[in-house]
Design goal:
binds tryptophan; about 45% helix; seven-stranded mixed sheet; alpha/beta
């Protein structure tokens, strides 16, 4: 099984995806200490993660952390696209994160055949304006273009030193006909994700990339690259000892002692006194450390790397949300008008789409009253769950009403139309009021 970030698969079995790729389950425990978690996090829409513990610790401890995500400007923005930005804005407003959003104009050029100019224009009209209307602020928040940020491109180049073609083939299924620009796209994305840990963007710290699960191959690749670019690795050895190891190459030979001295000092400062240093092995063993301690040691050492000539990239954490099913029961897609409600849809059209949407209802009202319907197979219920219904109480009532047969589809869709009118109408009004000055303020020139 392979996840193709540029493909059009519709994922159904998220538990299987998790098992197959070693994604951790995302549960309520992860949200302890998070103020007012939004529906997407509360209701199991975000179903998996890698390394979210680092983020949780940062939020709880009030420590600096960052959120990074990217947007591919390929078509009109619909409710499926709204999920990432809803989370990003929550983390910015309530959880102390600084936010960086990359416009994937390189990727759109390489993989979708869009000109850079067109990709940028689309990104601003469709996405940037909507993000501002939804509440993204330039205070600890920025949006930039992949094509103009040289730090991203430089890091992509450097990341290329750490990956070979056979790994790229194994992860992405690239073949002899894949263009080099396309092969480069994941490295650019690694540059996106990692560059926010450079000093000028906030330095080494926990970072989170909230994405759909189709992006997991990029996350796996990037976490590997982050690690290969480190000066130190902190880990448990095969014989069960915990230690700090130098992983620098020959070019660093004459700095090894200084690096070990520095690591020793950091460990002592953290309160680890029982150390066994082995210079020929380029190792310092830490006695009595737990696996949680290892994370703390790794973070502390990462922060020291930039002044010693390293990057100090902390492995980026990720979270994965489920995909919204299309209103027609297929995949929600910008290229099929009736599969999605677009954020720029005329309100009357949006309501018509709701009217036509596939539900979990029965053939006839009589049958539905008698047997009940299936909210778990209903695109309208999904819209409630992901976007439209803020109250968990009301959501539960609709769920039960549907299952029992008390609530019929027409009535239920009526409520959805009212909610769409309020939510989408409000968003469109705010979007129309976004000014060029606001766009300029959030959009970075380089
Ligand atoms: N590849 C992403 C998409 O297709 C866009 C993207 C580019 C991205 N850079 C990123 C996502 C960095 C997350 C982090 O939508």
């Amino acid at each position: 099984m392979r996840i193709d970030p540029w493909g059009s698969s519709q994922y159904q079995d998220y538990a299987r995806l998790r098992d197959e790729f070693g994604i951790e389950p995302f549960t309520e425990d992860h949200l302890e200490g998070f103020p007012d978690p939004p529906a997407l996090l509360r209701r199991g829409v975000v179903f998996g993660h890698r390394g979210f513990g680092l983020v949780r610790d940062a939020v709880r401890g009030g420590d600096p952390w960052g959120v990074m995500t990217g947007l591919m400007p390929s078509g009109r923005m619909h409710f499926g696209h709204k999920m990432v930005i809803d989370q990003v804005i929550y983390y910015q407003q309530k959880c102390g994160a600084d936010v960086h959003i990359g416009i994937a104009d390189f990727e759109a050029y390489a993989t979708r055949g869009l000109s850079i100019e067109k990709a940028r224009k689309l990104a601003i009209e469709e996405y940037v304006k909507t993000y501002l209307a939804l509440g993204l602020t330039p205070d600890k928040g920025e949006i930039y273009f992949q094509t103009t940020r040289s730090r991203v491109k430089d890091l992509a180049y450097e990341a290329g030193l750490k990956v070979n073609l056979s790994e790229m083939r194994a992860i992405y299924g690239f073949d002899d006909s894949t263009s080099l620009a396309h092969i480069n796209a994941p490295l650019i994305q690694a540059g996106d994700i990692l560059h926010i840990q450079r000093e000028e963007f906030g330095g080494p710290r926990p970072t989170l990339v909230p994405v759909g699960v189709d992006q997991d191959p990029h996350i796996r690749l990037t976490r590997g690259i982050a690690q290969s670019l480190r000066l130190y690795s902190v880990k448990k050895t095969e014989d069960g000892r915990h230690g700090v190891f130098l992983k620098t190459g020959d070019a660093w030979k004459d700095k090894e002692k200084a690096l070990l001295d520095a690591a020793e000092a950091t460990l002592k400062k953290l309160g680890f006194a029982d150390l066994e240093r082995n210079d020929p092995y380029r190792a310092i063993y830490v006695k009595g450390a737990s696996s949680r301690d290892l994370t703390q040691i790794d973070l502390a050492l990462a922060k020291t790397e930039p002044r010693r000539g390293g990057h100090g990239f902390v492995p980026p954490s990720s979270s994965y949300h489920r995909f919204l099913t299309g209103l027609d029961g297929g995949k929600m897609s910008s290229s099929r008008e009736n599969s999605a409600i677009f954020l720029s849809d005329d309100l009357e059209d949006a309501k018509k789409k709701i009217g036509r949407a596939k539900t979990g209802g029965r053939q006839s009202a009589e049958e539905q009253r008698r047997l009940g319907a299936d909210p778990d197979a209903c695109s309208i219920y999904e819209m409630y769950l992901y976007h439209l219904m803020d109250s968990d109480q009301e959501l539960l009532e609709y769920y039960k009403g549907c299952k029992s047969g008390e609530l019929l589809c027409g009535q239920c869709k009526g409520r959805a139309k009212d909610l769409i009118e309020v939510k989408l109408g409000g968003l469109q009004e705010r979007k129309a009021a976004v000014t060029d000055a606001e766009i300029k303020e959030v959009l970075s020139e380089d």
